[in-house]
Amino acid sequence: MADIASVGAPDDIVDGADLGAMLARWKTTDPVADIAPLATNGDGIVDGADLGMLLACWKNTCPASAPAPAVPEPATLAMLAFGVVTLLRRRSA
């Protein structure tokens, strides 16, 4: 669960208190703050993957097994780049 600061008495909202609690445990093996799912990272160390999970749940409630933030497919980025190049070429013509 991403609601780290309220362990034992959760307020169910991920906010600055939870961020502070995570940063206080940064690069430790504290299982309370190691919230990234095993499939994503779950390496037992509080790090960037855990911070990403916390930020994905920011100002919301997140279940214990919150999904990892969506990452765009490489084809999406290629299509975006193609569109930008096309627009720039049209402007200069």
Could you characterize the architecture of this molecule?
- The structure is a single chain.
- The chain is mainly alpha-helical and 93 residues long.
- Helix content is 40%, strand content 0%.
- It has one domain.
- The N and C termini lie far apart (54 Å).
Helix content: 25-40%
Query: Could you tell me the strand content as a percent range?
Result: under 5%
Uncertain ranges:
none
Q: What structural class do helix, strand and pairing data support?
A: mainly alpha
Whole-number radius of gyration?
A: 18 Å
Count every helix, treating DSSP H or I runs of 4 or more residues as helices. 3
Span between N and C termini?
Answer: 54 Å
Mean pLDDT: 76
Main sheet, how many strands, which sense, barrel? none
What is the overall shape? elongated
The tally of domains stands at: 1
The SSE string, one letter per element, is HHH
Find the count of extended strands (DSSP E, 2+ residues).
Answer: 0
Quick structural overview:
With 93 residues, this protein is an all-alpha fold.
Topology:
Blueprint lengths: L15 H9 L23 H9 L17 H19 L1
Provide key terms for this protein.
single chain; mainly alpha; 0% strand; 93 residues; 3 helices
